[in-house]
Q: What sequence folds into this?
Protein backbone atom coordinates (compact mmCIF):
# COMPACT_ATOMS: atom_id res chain seq x y z
CA UNK A 1 0.00 0.00 0.00
CA UNK A 2 2.81 2.39 0.82
CA UNK A 3 4.35 1.72 -2.57
CA UNK A 4 1.19 3.01 -4.27
CA UNK A 5 1.34 6.15 -2.14
CA UNK A 6 4.99 6.70 -3.04
CA UNK A 7 4.32 6.24 -6.76
CA UNK A 8 1.44 8.72 -6.66
CA UNK A 9 3.59 11.14 -4.67
CA UNK A 10 6.31 10.92 -7.30
CA UNK A 11 3.70 11.48 -10.02
CA UNK A 12 2.49 14.60 -8.22
CA UNK A 13 6.03 15.97 -8.16
CA UNK A 14 6.43 15.34 -11.90
CA UNK A 15 3.09 16.97 -12.66
CA UNK A 16 4.00 19.96 -10.48
CA UNK A 17 7.27 20.39 -12.40
CA UNK A 18 5.34 20.29 -15.67
CA UNK A 19 2.91 22.89 -14.33
CA UNK A 20 5.77 25.11 -13.22
CA UNK A 21 7.58 24.83 -16.55
CA UNK A 22 4.42 25.55 -18.52
CA UNK A 23 3.59 28.56 -16.37
CA UNK A 24 7.11 29.92 -16.93
CA UNK A 25 6.85 29.46 -20.72
CA UNK A 26 3.56 31.32 -21.00
CA UNK A 27 4.36 35.02 -20.95
CA UNK A 28 0.71 35.96 -20.37
CA UNK A 29 0.60 34.21 -17.01
CA UNK A 30 0.46 36.73 -14.15
CA UNK A 31 3.27 36.72 -11.60
CA UNK A 32 0.81 35.75 -8.88
CA UNK A 33 0.00 32.49 -10.66
CA UNK A 34 3.71 31.79 -11.15
CA UNK A 35 4.35 32.32 -7.43
CA UNK A 36 1.39 30.10 -6.54
CA UNK A 37 2.76 27.36 -8.81
CA UNK A 38 6.15 27.66 -7.12
CA UNK A 39 4.51 27.53 -3.68
CA UNK A 40 2.50 24.47 -4.73
CA UNK A 41 5.64 22.73 -5.98
CA UNK A 42 7.55 23.55 -2.79
CA UNK A 43 4.69 22.29 -0.61
CA UNK A 44 4.42 19.04 -2.57
CA UNK A 45 8.18 18.47 -2.41
CA UNK A 46 8.30 19.02 1.36
CA UNK A 47 5.32 16.70 1.90
CA UNK A 48 6.94 14.03 -0.25
CA UNK A 49 10.24 14.27 1.61
CA UNK A 50 8.37 13.65 4.87
CA UNK A 51 6.49 10.78 3.23
CA UNK A 52 9.72 9.13 2.03
CA UNK A 53 11.30 9.54 5.47
CA UNK A 54 8.25 7.87 7.04
CA UNK A 55 8.30 5.07 4.46
CA UNK A 56 11.98 4.26 4.94
CA UNK A 57 11.69 4.54 8.72
CA UNK A 58 8.91 1.94 8.66
CA UNK A 59 10.86 -0.19 6.19
CA UNK A 60 13.99 -0.24 8.39
CA UNK A 61 11.91 -0.84 11.51
CA UNK A 62 10.22 -3.80 9.78
CA UNK A 63 13.61 -5.21 8.76
CA UNK A 64 14.88 -5.02 12.34
CA UNK A 65 11.77 -6.77 13.66
CA UNK A 66 12.10 -9.61 11.15
CA UNK A 67 15.57 -10.59 12.38
A:
Amino acid sequence: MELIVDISAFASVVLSFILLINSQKNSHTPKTVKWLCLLLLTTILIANVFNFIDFFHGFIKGLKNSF
Q: What stands out?
A: The helical segments are 2-25, 31-66. The longest helix spans residues 31-66.
